[in-house]
Specification:
This protein has 582 residues and is α/β, with parallel strands linked by helices. It contains 22 helices and 26 strands. The longest helix has 18 residues. The chain starts with a helix and ends in a 14-residue tail after the last helix.
Length: 582
Amino acid sequence: MASSLQSTTNARYRDVKVEKSDGATFTPRRLASFVACQIAATLRVAERRTIRVLDPAVGEGALLISLLEELQALGIHDVEVYGFETNPGSLRIARQAIQEKFPRGSLIFSQSSFLEYAERLTGNLSLFSSEAPNAKFDAIIANPPYVRTQIMGAVNAQGLAATFGLSGRVDLYHAFILGIVNVLDDEGVAGIIVSNRFMSTKSGASVRRVLREATNLRQVWDLGDTKLFDAAVLPAVILLTKNSSRPNANPGFTSIYEIDGVASTRAHDVIDALGESGTVSLADGRRFQVTHGELDLDSAADSVWRVSTQKADTWLKTVASRTWRTFGEIGSIRVGIKTCADKVFIRSDWGSLGKEGRPELLRPLTTHHMGRRFKAENAKVGYEVLYPHWVNEGKREAVDLARYPNSLAYLEKHRSTLENRTYVLDAGRKWYEIWVPQDPDLWALPKLVFRDICEAPTFWVDLDGSIVNGDCYWLSPKHCTDAGLLWLALAVANSSFIEAFYDHRFHNKLYSGRRRFITQYVECFPLPDPSSREGQALSGLAREIFDKMPATPTKELESRLDDLVWQAFGFDYAKKSTGSGI
């Protein structure tokens, strides 16, 4: 296992450094100082005791330098500094910078994988050998690398999952978080900068569970679209301790997202804004909504994390009292297909191959490009996908290409490209398969389709049996008799009410106010009773809008529908512009 972990961590620098050659993987000084300050303020140190400090992914040393400065300011000088880094150039820079600033410090660096150490520690083996004791750490400061499953490869991802108890689409930083928990001393404090994705994704569920059950979470900061990193990372900071003798109250939760609006206060920068509340204007002209509350601990340990405030909780209780079912209860929500070779499988110019060369396995494809509220545009024309999967005796399989000579000839021309998807072959799949094909039998059913990322919800019903591309999600009812529920779901999903629900329930956006409509969120969307007066009216209005589009204007119908959704959940629709309806 150790060799697998080593190669996985090395991939951080072989692959991610190429993708982020501008140094975006390194921590900005201002953020490093913020995290270091939080750790130092929480750490309890007995007199005359050497404390052990760790950065499991040192980079060029910004985090360690900030933490050592904070500790010195508190009069803590007896410190042993440990660090792991697989990039020799970065390690040299970090060592030199720290030795210059703290010449009296005990500095013990290893050009190796922290994950190996985290694994070996449980077996009383020290990766540092004679250089350091096999010990846990009093203070850990970290900005773990972000490396997705596809970059790591299936074998490495599976190895990490087995070692650290992960599931789903593993990211390297998931393993780092759990490794940090393993090596943190019982009296220790950790401050970790991570992508905020783990707070909501299915693959982050095991991480959320461990953090809830094995640590005392002290504070969570969702730094949203603050652009603290050059890369397109939406960061979060987690502060935690391991001391079970100090029962933990509900952890504080602060979120900050850019908005348009009139500011009630000003701050110099994003970090300063975290100490304010409401709409805050920065010196650079940007405005952010800063919300302070608590991490909701009333749900299951692996549930999606959200900020809980009295106002939001009251609003959500009103919604819950009028909720009949959720979207997830009427059908499974899935992401569309992912080919990992779109230029081969997906085209809008298949006609250029001529009638004789047109592959037999082409199917109509719905993408976000044609997505419109209520009804897709040109759903029957445009992109098509070569879909080489079928169901045989109840089991999804790759088709027998010998039965489809045109498809075989076309795919053979692109065989080298497709075989370069080594993770497909490593998973025991055929070279011409789509990486995520979903269930072929479900495509013919009526389904609700929606865009992943957009400012306003964009949901539509597909009745044409189209395959859904991976830039969209879709829902089919569990039972054919429930198909009528799609129209009710369509009405609710395209309303301003669902935007307010999203903001109260999840409080998570991307850049420029865009929301993410992913499984973990949409499955929680509420539905009113379909047999109620409002429920029946909403289903009828949604179907009427669908039938009239695009030939007839539907703005008036959509306005009526929007008002009725608010009424269905017990709110005064005349106040919907405030987002509260109360």
